[in-house]
Specification:
single chain; 423 residues; alpha/beta; D-Maltodextrin-Binding Protein, domain 2; 6-stranded mixed beta sheet; 16 helices; 44% helix; 13% strand; globular
Length: 423
């Protein structure tokens, strides 16, 4: 009996030690990224390097957030300089990598070290075998990522397979001005929005779907989910028959809105900046956001009125993760790995959710895996910072659905132009 009790006590002690030091042990046991002998080898190789991060540059608040949240600690902690390269559209970076591949530029002779990427852009490079990796589960802070989560280990229905690492969570929802509208009068579905548009002519519009305007494409897909009976049937491989069955009703509905849209539907905003401007000028009553922090970041940036508030429909609010990926011929792979690792560090993850810092994105880590007291304090402070400009988080979470196979993206954009814009 004594021996059994002693053994039990030993096992209990081991369990407690594993709980306390499990993250550190997992990090120590982790394989090094491809081409490196250890994480220390990565850090040494990155010393003094510049990391060229190609990313959509359409938001000043996000650009400033990136420079402050990653640029400063990269330089101070790793002697790595961040060179943020703004893009009008992520496809520009994809085309750069494709062009370099056609020109036979191999090794570390490329231009781009890291790309903010997801969806069809990721799939294009992965299919062409033009990404470095797999590496995403071989950086120390990947222990904070729940790789068993299908919403995270798949990107637009395609397996990530270690070729991209998550940055931030995003979810489509709406913003209204509480000085102009009552919360009780807000539409909570696309059927209710249809009625609202008819009763408030000229007060609504949406972004024209197309390359560089994924928010507009996402809006149209959400309408499609509702009128077709739900998003679940759209999950999985591309289904042309399903698409052909339901899209005629989609184009009919969107066309029925046009006479009551802003400017009679003769023109549509090209991007979220134009949509925000119409909202701020009082020309329309509803704009959109992808940020879990809601209206706060755009209020702080001076883009929309201080009385702006975020709200969600009750279903079909598409959410996903944004990722970073490293091209096959990145000139500074070690520096890119350092930056990707910093992005999923819990204190940096916490900072990206705080509205005043300008990002306002959701977490891509599992907070239950965080044990460091300073990091836990940062996460708690961030959770308490959302404020009244954010949507009801429970309602937003209940409305969450994933995006669908990348093939639908270009098809929706082309068919919207043919059947709605030109019609």
């Amino acid at each position: 009996m004594f021996r059994r009790n002693v053994l039990f006590s030993v096992f209990l002690l081991i369990a407690l030690l594993l709980s306390a030091f499990g993250t550190t042990l997992a990090q120590d046991m982790m394989d090094a990224p491809p081409g490196f002998d250890s994480w220390d080898d990565v850090v040494a190789a990155a010393d003094g390097a510049t990391v060229n991060w190609y990313m959509w540059g359409g938001s000043d608040s996000i650009n400033n957030f990136v420079d402050e949240t990653y640029g400063i600690p990269l330089l101070e902690e790793y002697n790595v300089t961040l060179n943020r390269v703004p893009l009008a559209d992520t496809v520009d970076a994809v085309n750069q990598v494709l062009s370099e591949a056609e020109a036979g530029i191999e090794g570390d002779g490329g231009t781009i070290d890291l790309i903010w990427i997801n969806g069809e852009n990721f799939y294009t490079l992965k299919q062409a075998e033009l990404l470095y990796g797999p590496w995403a589960q071989n950086i120390p802070n990947s222990v904070f990522v729940n790789w068993d989560n299908p919403a995270l280990n798949q990107d637009f229905g395609r397996p990530v397979d270690g070729y991209e690492s998550p940055w931030t969570g995003a979810q489509f929802h709406y913003i209204y001005d509480s000085a102009r509208m009552s919360e009780e009068d807000l539409p909570r579905s696309y059927a209710e929005l249809t009625d609202w548009i008819a009763m408030n002519p000229g007060r609504f519009t949406y972004i024209a779907p197309g390359p560089g305007a994924f928010q507009g494409t996402r809006f149209v897909k959400q309408v499609l989910f509702e009128i077709s009976g739900g998003q679940s049937q759209w999950v999985g491989d591309f289904n042309q028959e399903l698409y052909d069955e339901h899209t005629p009703a989609l184009w009919d509905l969107l066309n029925s809105w046009e006479e009551n849209l802003w400017r009679g539907g003769e023109t549509y905003p090209a991007n979220i900046g134009e949509l925000h401007e119409l909202f701020a000028n009082g020309e329309i009553d509803i704009t959109i956001t992808q940020r879990k922090a809601g209206a706060g970041p755009d209020i702080n940036a001076g883009l929309i009125p201080p009385t702006s508030r975020a709200f969600s429909f009750d279903e079909n609010m598409v959410g996903d993760f944004n990722y970073v990926a490293i091209p096959y011929n990145a000139p500074n792979k070690a520096a890119a790995l350092i930056l990707a690792n910093l992005i999923v560090r819990p204190d940096r993850q916490a900072r990206q959710t705080v509205p005043e810092y300008g990002m306002g994105g959701g977490l891509s880590i599992d907070t239950n895996r965080v044990t460091d007291e300073a990091h836990l304090a940062a996460l708690e402070e961030a959770a308490n910072s959302l404020g009244e400009a954010s949507a009801d988080q429970a309602r937003l979470a209940a409305a969450l659905v994933s995006d669908i196979a990348a093939e639908y993206q270009a098809l929706v954009e082309a068919d919207w132009e043919a059947n709605v814009l030109r019609n």
